[in-house]
Amino acid sequence: MTGQIVPPGTRRFGADGASHFFGYYNKSPWDPSGRWLLAHRSPLHGGALTGEEVAEIGLFDTEGDGAFQPLAQTQAWNWQMGAQLQWLGSAGRRIIFNTRDDTGRDPVFGTPFHARVLDIDTGATRDLPLPVYVVAPDGAAGYCVNYARLAHTHPTIGYFDGASVSAPSDCPETDGIFRMDNATGEIASVVSFAALARLDPRDSMQGAVHWASHLEVSPDGGRLLFLHRWTRRVEDETCFLHRLLTCNPDGTALRLLECSDHPLPQLDDTFDPEAVGLFDYEKSEYQISHPLWIDSERLIVWGPHDGVIGYHIYNDRSGEVRRIGDGSLNENGHMSFDPSGKWLLSDTYPDAETGLRDLFLWDDTDGKRLLARLLTDPALVKTDRCDLHPRWNQDGTQVCVDSVHEGWRAMYVLIAP
């Protein structure tokens, strides 16, 4: 395809005739040894999900023939984040992912979704009471949200229990972020939506539905970051309002780092949400998105600060904020630093005319370095699109992305220069 740049040595994992993907940018598919890649497989190319669709959980052996090795199945997944598939702990022989069980409901959210731990060596499984969003680096705890709420507020990252979705209560004391002990299954509330709304309340929160996403645990396990979002119109993502917060694992020392509350002309009755482009929301001047810890003090996020949108680094302890890449990092992306802290890895959303998106590296000294330029599929929409979601391997020598530039959703591993 004209305009594409695929670097020499790029290796594809996943054959035509099925979709193979990992999911989000915030977790690495590689095990600690660097040999095995976690992945999802679906017979579908895209389309809206109802909860009946089955995805397989499996592995690619990067030292073998590259064939997909299935391990389990799940009905709790979406195209953006999959089943929140991730390695559990540093040994790299157990995985955790979300699944669906229609024989019972979880004890907090009342949904059929929960997490499952699988021992790769023995095949033994153990179920946990809540679905997980992210686990602590040592694997001891998982942080959990209500995926049925997300199916209503932000369906791109929700789980479905049938084609229709019920509207949740707007801002309850009983819903929010929960911490789950991955050994015992014990559950504790971290923060409720009602408590979040009481923290520096805004007029726009009145009559709005609230949710949380982008939960991330600091490398030392001592802090949790997340986005608090709310809206009066879930159908139009440009009406979403955002705050970036951090807290201790038990919800104490809650700290508000950024808020992008702003007037919303889109709420006017004459506004036409159909006039909003597919990626206009991701390119909004008010968007706060894709936060990730750099180390146990600093985090990076795309968002506005002092009226300027861009890549910003926040110090969770001092409150210092610094913009990076002024003049070169001007588009929202899924960003992370390599283990050495030198290179920022990120991507762009597709160009509206060409459908091409860039995968690149950046640092303060060497500037921006293009790794690849890949085509997306214009038939894919918000809920089933295939973002690149670049992820580092453990030693920062390789990058893995999900892409559809060859016609089918597959995983690609590139050498990082």
UniProtKB/TrEMBL annotation:
Organism from which the protein derives: Arenibacterium halophilum
InterPro entries per UniProt: WD40/YVTN_repeat-like_dom_sf
The organism's place on the tree of life at top rank: Bacteria
Protein name: WD40 repeat protein
Cross-referenced SUPFAM superfamilies: DPP6 N-terminal domain-like
